[in-house]
Amino acid sequence: MEYRRSTLPTSVKEPESKFTFRVPNRRARAVTAPAPASAPAHPALALHGAFSSAEPAPPGALASAEPAPDELTGMVDVVGVTQVTHDVKTFELRAGWMESVDFEPGQYVTVRVPELGLERCYSISSAPFGTNTFTITVKRVSGGAVSNHLHDAVGVGGSLHVDGPYGLFSTSFHPAATHLFISGGSGITPMMSMVRALLADPGQHPTDIVFVHNAATPDDIIFRAELDQLAEVPGIRVVTMCSRDSVTEVWAGRRGRISADVLAEAVPGLGDREVFVCGPAGYRESVRDALARLGVDDRRVHEESFVFAMKPADRLARAEARAREFAERDGAARQDSTGPGWGECTPLARFGIEFRSTGTRIDCDPGTTVLDAAVRAGLTVPSSCAEGMCGTCKSVLVSGEVEMRHNGGIRPKEIAAGKFLPCCSTPKSDLVVE
């Protein structure tokens, strides 16, 4: 679907993940020249008030910003911490400036730690109950700077900067009469939000949920007591699987890994269910293969995954690879334009991008994202996921037109206000970026 920016109100409930996003030219000067050679190698580029992952934000910089009364963007108070398993904690957060934190079950927030200069996305594990508090459930990751900081340094009375909610992974956006939730490890967090919400508001259909969860050992089962309680609720079938015993417990339940045989046995009416999958990459791949073997329509299968912190060298390599590919295609087009039928094949377009905050101007081909073009030109751009999920690179498009293919990292009203995500946007004209 193509979306063209309009001042008219919209009643569309589900955010679209692809937009053709056009902003009228506001007397912006033409931009075609590349960045001058004398420009600094890595000038700072301030985009929508976000901070670069290369430079930690100064203490209090984020706290000083006045949050909008109807947006979950600002410093939230930590009002509760619960030890869920030996390496998982739930943090109850309160947005004091809001009467109610509105989100769809399954969505996530971007958590920023100013002193580390880092951000990560965490699914909201609570259901939207109309209060100004919500929870995130965080697994400690070996070597993970943010998760270890949250576990070791953040307690009741502390505060975190959050931005959101984001994401399209929600039963609200994919309504159905019957559901199948499949999770591995900490992938259970958005599932619990959705299950809790469905139970609180079952709608017109009787509850019909199958919940399959995989953990390494019994000690690693997140929300174990609640899963046991859910198994007693009419209309809900819970299948918890462990790969092995723990030091303190011999697992008496189903053992092994997720497979087509397990799903065929455990899930009645599999083909009629809306399926939600979350877990590590290998786990999701196994589930995807199993569902395909069982003939499940992939249009009914929805996945959530967070991929972050692409190394600068990797991002630069990707940008350069895309530039080489464009150069090869452009060269072929130019060569063809001199031969017979030259009128049918013209050199490929190249657009100019101006970043107003620095006055820097660069070139970008239509197949390269604005972020990759900026990185290739030596600009330091605040970004994290590079997949249109976290919202860190969110910027204002002053003029021009881009095609944006995001993964829920921007709100519809932000798009209406002229904001876009450079990491997943390719130019369709010359651009001016605030």
Can you describe this structure?
It is built from eight helices and 19 strands. The chain has 434 residues and is α/β, with parallel strands linked by helices. It has three domains: 18-52 and 309-433, Beta-grasp domain (Ubiquitin-like (UB roll), Roll), CATH 3.10.20.30; 72-164, Beta Barrel (Elongation Factor Tu (Ef-tu), domain 3), CATH 2.40.30; 179-304, 3-Layer(aba) Sandwich (Rossmann fold). The strands form three sheets. Strands 1, 14, 15, 16, 17, 18 and 19 form a seven-stranded mixed sheet that branches. The protein is globular, with a radius of gyration of 24 Å. The relative contact order is 0.16.
Counting copies of identical and different chains, the oligomeric state is: single chain
Q: Could you tell me the CATH topology label of the largest domain.
A: Ubiquitin-like (UB roll)
- Secondary structure category: alpha/beta
- How many structural domains? 3
- What is the 3D shape? globular
Q: Which segments are poorly predicted (pLDDT under 50) over 5 or more consecutive residues?
A: 1-15, 23-64, 339-347
Instruction: Report the β-strand fraction as a percent range.
Output: 25-35%
Mean pLDDT: 80
What is the N-to-C order of secondary-structure elements (H for helix, E for strand)? Answer: EEEEEEHEEHEHEEHEHEHEEHEHEEE
Discrete helix count: 8
Any idea what the radius of gyration is? Answer: 24 Å
